Amino acid sequence: MDVLESAFHPNAVAVAGASEDPFSFGYHYVRHLLDYGYPGHIYPVNPRRETIQGLKAYPNLTSIPEPVDYVICCLPASKVPDLLAECPSRGVKVVHLLTARLSETGRQEAKDLESRILQEARRSNVRLIGPNCMGIYYPGGGISLGYGFPKEAGIVGAVFQSGGASDLLVRHGELQGLRFSKVISYGNALDLDESDFLNYLAHDDETKVIAAYFEGAKDGRKLLNALTDAVRVKPVIAIKGGRGLAGTRAAASHTAALAGSNVIWETAFRKAGVIQAQDIRELVNFLVAFSFLPPIRGNRVGIFGGGGGMSVMSADICEEAGLVLPPLPAEFREKLRTKAPEIWDWVGNPVDVSIMGGISRGLEAVIGEFPEMIAESPQFDFIITEMAEDNPFPEDIWSVVVKRQTEAYINVSRKQLKPMIAVVGGGETSYDESKNMRWRALAEQRARLINAGIPTYSTIAEAARAVRQVIGYWQTREET
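Above: the chain sequence. Below: its structure as tokens.
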């Protein structure tokens, strides 16, 4: 914990191999520290430059005038042992090795060099993140591994063997409202490994939900113990990369990972209580549910907002996901006698909004009241609302209707009567949203729902599968 605290909260950071070349990683990592507002001292290290990006440059670590907790190494692999030998002179605790082309190449000389690097790190009493990794994204401390990431901190922590996959997690997660506490890309795991990072996040007060991507494990028993301990205190959602033969070969050349049997991994996940996702999109969907929903232990859902065919399909999909759709209770129908006498004994669950056309009180008025009535009923554990895309209105009238729907959903959510999930289609449309009013209106309402802290999905299937994971997790926690 103390070692990783030094990486996330360093008093000073040195970038070895810092550069003015905008196509080099030595340029990017200096730029990230500047762009994201790292509050400590930044020391570019380059013997051929006096300044880099407006900062005084230093020829080596030993010439830096103060202790340095954390070093980001963008040097070629052959220069890493000498850099590590300089670390004790400045009290370096952790080195992030962006440096690649080591054991993942499969070449014996590269494997031998990687062993020398580890030996030198141990002699110098320095811990390593990597090699062959993107390092750390910590918005709370002004540290990033990519451009354009959110600067606001959140509650999702991530342990990712792949740097590119961690980048996708942050970018796709941002679109659905996720914000991150700490993201760690650890690559070949020569020293500090996936289990060390999991243990750290399990005890990190800023992290409430843990995401993970593994291609292999250095120590299977250690990882199983780390996963089991983490799940006891926080939800853990993981992707196993390299499930098939081609994926296993790709993992070996990517991070030198020994992928192992997929059956063994699935068994380990199940034993530890880890929720397994198949890809980044599903991982983000699950994280959204765990980030924005309170604990849900019941599976009774009330569905509102879809049209006729959409309601039928929603019912099928939710039941197939293990959810239960109770009929509308008698007291609900009694309320409807005065509010919507034309449909009070006709409407069911899911509530089909297509049958509301032409009722005396008007569609907008009923849309504003129905979700709250469902939320007030003890018959339901949570609500799924849908934006009815399949309606006969022209775009100008339809945009007013969906705006009213959004306002009603946000108002109900604020009252915290029941957990709410929103389904807003159009996210995968190939239309030019700037020219098509319908898809633009959906995008606008989706953004409003996300900003209101309502978990939002593109399809009912995504929503049903995500909430089912939440229910299963909390039911298991209750049983144990």
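The mean pLDDT is 89.
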